[in-house]
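Researcher: Re-running this chain for the archive, since the previous output was lost when a drive failed. Same request as before.
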Amino acid sequence: MRIRHNDYEVDDDPGRVDQDAVVSLLAATDAYWERWRSPADLQAQIDTAWRVVGAYKRTDGSMVGFARAVSDGVAVAYLADVIVAPGARSAGLGIRLVDAMIEQGPGRGFRWMLHTKDAHGRVCCRNR
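Model: Regenerated structure tokens:
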């Protein structure tokens, strides 16, 4: 699945995910939920994720956003990471990442969960 959005592209190809870019995204935003993860832990989480979705600049393909989910593959999914680079914010990418993950993927009818102590932007998850 590839979705064009202005100067960006949202893609669910796990082979396209750049772990170094994800580490940089998490560090650049001082994400509170990533502080305990080593690069090896993060790679294991990406490798074993039920689904990953990335956002990329159309001009050079560099990764500017990332979302990761874990699931039982039947009814329930947990949105574990959603991150957008500071320079790419306010372009609707967070919403596009979540939409691609939930509405455009195999978990469309699942019950989704997200635990957060803060919410940036206007991301909304609903139960079906």
